Amino acid sequence: MAAQHIAGLPVEEVLLAASAAAAPMLALIGWEIRDRLRRVRRKLSSASNEPDPAPR
């Protein structure tokens, strides 16, 4: 960051632009993780709700 200040770049504006550019991708990653966790939880709960097979 110090090098950018020396070069005359406004570090705060660069960080703001970078975070604004990354926000949609971070949102998509968050939604994907949440969706996968829901699917895993649903699969685990459905597997635990199944009755045990009758012994032979």
- How widely separated are the two ends? 71 Å
Shape: rod-shaped
Question: Helix content range of the residues, please?
Answer: over 70%
* Secondary-structure content class: mainly alpha
Per DSSP, the total helix count is: 2
Number of strands: 0
Radius of gyration: 24 Å
From N to C, what is the helix and strand string? HH
Uncertain segments are: none
Major sheet details: none
Beta-strand share of residues: under 5%
If you average the pLDDT, what whole number results?
83
Task: Describe the structure in your own words.
It is a single chain. By secondary structure, this protein is mainly alpha-helical. It has helices at residues 2-7, 11-49.
What keyword list fits this structure?
single chain, mainly alpha, 56 residues
Question: Gist?
Answer:
With 56 residues, the protein is an all-alpha fold.
List the helices and strands and how they pair.
Layout: H1 2-7, H2 11-49
